[in-house]
């Protein structure tokens, strides 16, 4: 008997559910019939690669990893520029804008996120969510006379856009709230390191609570942004391009209208198998994945959003396991989704930042008292090429001394350390264990006493040996 699997959304979350199922078709005897419904006209696009395309490293089209035909050739009913208007969870079907009704045995909601922004008729004002946005921004950058850029948002999207604009010679202003950059990932002292490095590239930062009060233009194109409500605080900032890189919210309209529970973070509530919740129970043949879902934090055990590709890919694996388990009747294929520790890494104009676990502020909000240690060291012996500095901050539970957060800023080796320290958090390593742990040494690759040891030592109130 053929099982019909409908995936609503063709971003990385939906695509990875599909990829997992396609790769494991032989795990079950029953035939599976796949339908993917997405509003965009592209196939699988690496949206994380778009900011680097704007920096001129490669063409935007290269971020389309697989075109729709790639999936169609594998027997997938891959529909682009298709809008779903209704999910009927009682009768197991979805309704398209055309009026067509598609039945399903399993439904995967992968609707992603959206931005809540005020519309303007002026050209040159963009969000930065997908390849269509990137192409519009690139076209604007190539216009004659473009000199100034304004970016609203101090997160990864905003900073990567700023780095791209500065690289192309634009006078760039980044405007976000106080007190520092990347507040969901970095403490203020670490965020300030990123800010200082980016300021050296000529990027201006405004970190205060003023909001946009007007966007002015001439001949239909944006020319400036006014921030501040009171006359004495108003400022007009020249802007030939405006990027709104904040106010990201889960795209949950379809799920909400279908009666699916929405959590306190604004994302879809799921169990650990990624089944959606409706009323008092979960629906065993309906899943949600990616940016539209909320997760449970691995440290605070509170619900939150974690709109990262790495989270979506993990969730997609779990969903594929559980669909296959249901189809085959083999409980051994079932798998649960782990708690979220949010490993994050980003390149913002050559400056690498990384984090995993909670920030000091997030721990405080959850009632967790912390101790921390911060150290700066080279990543290898100073006489070797590429011996650049790395600043590492480790955050520990003040009572148990267990590692609960790590943050770093440098020019190399950040991603590897984020993964290493993520494992340390999951293992419940203490500051004493990290201080006394053996580490590899070779002057061309690592120091004899690593920055991790110094940071853990300082957290314990002990002076490191230099």
Key structural traits:
466 residues, 3 domains, alpha/beta, FAD/NAD(P)-binding domain, single chain, 12 helices
Structure report:
The protein starts with a strand and ends in a 7-residue tail after the last helix. Helix 1 (12-23) runs parallel beside helix 8. It has helices spanning 12-23, 50-54, 68-72, 131-141, 156-167, 188-199, 253-257, 309-328, 360-365, 414-427, 431-436, 451-459, and strands at 3-8, 32-37, 44-45, 64-66, 77-79, 84-88, 93-96, 101-103, 106-109, 113-115, 125-127, 148-152, 171-176, 204-207, 212-218, 221-227, 235-238, 241-244, 248-250, 275-278, 281-288, 295-296, 303-304, 344-348, 351-357, 370-378, 389-397, 403-410. The strands form 8 sheets. Strands 5-2-1-9-21-20 form a 6-stranded mixed sheet. Strands 11-18-12-13-14 form a 5-stranded parallel sheet, with helices on one face. The chain is of the alpha/beta class and 466 residues long. The chain folds into 3 domains: 3-39 and 82-114 and 249-333, 3-Layer(bba) Sandwich (FAD/NAD(P)-binding domain); 117-246, 3-Layer(bba) Sandwich (FAD/NAD(P)-binding domain); 352-459, Enolase-like, domain 1 (2-Layer Sandwich).
List the helices and strands and how they pair.
Layout (H helix, E strand, L loop, with lengths): L2 E6 L3 H12 L8 E6 L6 E2 L4 H5 L9 E3 L1 H5 L4 E3 L4 E5 L4 E4 L4 E3 L2 E4 L3 E3 L9 E3 L3 H11 L6 E5 L3 H12 L3 E6 L11 H12 L4 E4 L4 E7 L2 E7 L7 E4 L2 E4 L3 E3 L2 H5 L17 E4 L2 E8 L6 E2 L6 E2 L4 H20 L15 E5 L2 E7 L2 H6 L4 E9 L10 E9 L5 E8 L3 H14 L3 H6 L14 H9 L7
Parallel strand pairs: 1-2, 1-9, 2-5, 9-21, 11-18, 12-13, 12-18, 13-14
Antiparallel strand pairs: 3-4, 6-7, 7-8, 10-19, 15-16, 16-17, 20-21, 22-23, 24-25, 25-28, 26-27, 27-28
């Amino acid at each position: 008997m053929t099982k019909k699997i409908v995936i609503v959304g063709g971003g990385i979350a939906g695509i990875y559910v599909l990829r997992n199922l396609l790769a494991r078709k032989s795990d079950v005897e029953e035939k599976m019939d796949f339908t993917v419904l997405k509003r965009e006209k592209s196939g699988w696009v690496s949206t994380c690669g778009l900011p680097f395309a704007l920096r001129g490293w490669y063409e935007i089209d290269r971020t389309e990893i697989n075109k729709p035909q790639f999936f169609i050739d594998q027997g997938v009913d891959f529909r682009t520029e298709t809008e779903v208007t209704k999910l009927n969870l009682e009768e197991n079907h979805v309704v398209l804008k055309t009026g067509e009704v598609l039945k399903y045995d399993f439904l995967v909601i992968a609707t992603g996120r959206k931005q809540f922004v005020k519309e303007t008729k002026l050209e040159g004002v963009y969000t930065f969510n997908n390849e269509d946005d990137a192409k519009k921004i690139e076209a604007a950058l190539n216009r004659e006379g473009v000199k100034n850029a304004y970016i609203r948002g101090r997160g990864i999207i905003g900073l990567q856009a700023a780095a791209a604009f500065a690289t192309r010679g634009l006078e760039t202003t980044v405007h976000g709230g106080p007190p520092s950059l990347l507040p969901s990932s970095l403490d203020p002292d670490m965020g300030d390191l990123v800010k200082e490095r980016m300021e050296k590239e000529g990027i201006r930062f405004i970190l205060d609570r003023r909001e946009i009060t007007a966007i002015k233009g001439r001949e239909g194109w944006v020319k400036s942004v006014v921030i501040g409500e009171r006359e004495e605080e108003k400022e007009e900032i020249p802007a030939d391009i405006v990027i709104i890189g904040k106010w990201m919210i889960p795209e949950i309209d379809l799920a909400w209208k279908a009666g699916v529970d929405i959590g306190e973070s604004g994302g879809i509530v799921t169990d650990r198998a990624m089944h959606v919740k409706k009323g008092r129970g979960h629906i065993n043949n309906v899943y949600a994945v990616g940016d539209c879902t909320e997760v449970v934090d691995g440290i605070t055990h509170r619900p939150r959003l974690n709109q990262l590709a790495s989270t979506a890919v993990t969730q997609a694996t779990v969903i594929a396991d559980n669909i296959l388990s249901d189809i085959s009747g083999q409980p051994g294929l079932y798998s649960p989704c782990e708690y979220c520790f949010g490993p994050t890494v980003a390149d913002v104009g050559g400056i690498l930042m990384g984090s995993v676990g909670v920030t000091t502020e997030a721990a405080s909000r959850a009632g967790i008292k912390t101790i921390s240690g911060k150290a700066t060291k080279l990543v290898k012996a100073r006489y070797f090429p590429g011996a650049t500095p790395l600043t590492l901050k480790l955050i520990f539970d003040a009572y148990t001394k267990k590692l609960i957060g790590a943050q770093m800023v440098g020019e190399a080796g950040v991603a590897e350390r984020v993964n290493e320290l993520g494992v340390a958090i999951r293992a419940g390593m203490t500051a004493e264990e990290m201080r006394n742990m053996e580490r590899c040494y070779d002057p061309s690759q690592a120091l004899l006493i690593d920055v991790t040891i110094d940071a853990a030592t300082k957290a314990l109130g002990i002076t490191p040996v230099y």
